[in-house]
Amino acid sequence: MRCRPVYIARMHPAVFLDRDDTLIANRSLDTPDGARAGDLADPDRVVLLPGALEACRLLRRAAFRLIVFTNQGVVARGGATPSQVDAVHDRLRELLVDEEGQPLLDDILYCPYHPEGSVPEFTREHPWRKPAPGMILHAAEVHDLDLTRSWVVGDQQRDIDAGVRAAIAPQRCLQIGRDVPDLLAGAIHIVRANAPTARTSASIRLSDPTLRADTPLCETVESSARALAERVGVRLLDLAWRDDRLEIEVDGPQIVAIGLAAELRRTTDAWYRARAGRALWHEDRP
């Protein structure tokens, strides 16, 4: 008996992330002598933007594949070699890990070509160079992605155009500075769009229960929570101390509450360590 072939639909939604000024700082960095503004070829200069790590963790919890796609015309211009770009991306992979140290990124794709370059090997137009959709289409084929359920987040119009040209719905292509203020806000928007609205909560515990008596400290943490929720577009329903725990209740799915609590923990812990030289929060995670 001859069996008919079985065709399995692509099952994986993805979020395509631009690199510079979406995941890592670029325009704000000092430009080394002799370098062109915006070119980044040194892995020691790779710095995650605020909220970028928690944004990727949040999207991973929501079962999205994470694909970085970036134009790197610096190679065509002779400002970096492919090996240097790879070293930058290796550093990015080291920084973007989950709580257990496992990598969050499924792939990093980059286009080294530019039609106005100085290195003959890379001086030409190429279907991978944004706003062309080549990197997205390649990733969809290699990683078995469903582009109808995928998203794009980037800081430039070319990122959005690449997504639309790859048949990702325009409303799923988010431009930082226009549609969302930063990647964390974009991640929360994506998760909320893919999950039913609910009243959920998460909590974080103080490292020392006696800190609960420090009223100015607690008020600063609460103000930080409200400011963070407003910035990323989350409706904060309740904020209350339960003994040595701060409980954060939001209008959104559980992973949004967890993500908001984790980012609040990160930012306020950094502030308190600089002030007091010790951790503000207990090692357990929200």
What this model shows, in words?
- There is one protein chain.
- This protein is of the alpha/beta class.
- It has two domains: 14-193, Rossmann fold, CATH 3.40.50.1000; 199-276, 2-Layer Sandwich (TATA-Binding Protein).
- The protein is 33% helix and 15% strand.
- The chain is built from seven helices and eight strands.
- The chain has helices at residues 52-61, 82-95, 134-143, 157-165, 183-193, 215-232, 254-276, and strands at 14-17, 65-71, 107-111, 151-154, 173-175, 199-205, 236-242, 245-251.
- The chain has a five-stranded parallel sheet with strand order 3-2-1-4-5, with helices on both faces. Strands 6-8-7 form a three-stranded antiparallel sheet, covered by helices on one side.
- Helix 6 (215-232) packs across helix 7.
- The longest helix is centred in the C-terminal third of the chain and has 23 residues, at 254-276.
- It is globular, with a radius of gyration of 21 Å.
- The protein starts with 13 loop residues before the first strand and ends in a 10-residue tail after the last helix.
- Mean pLDDT is 93; it is low at 1-10.
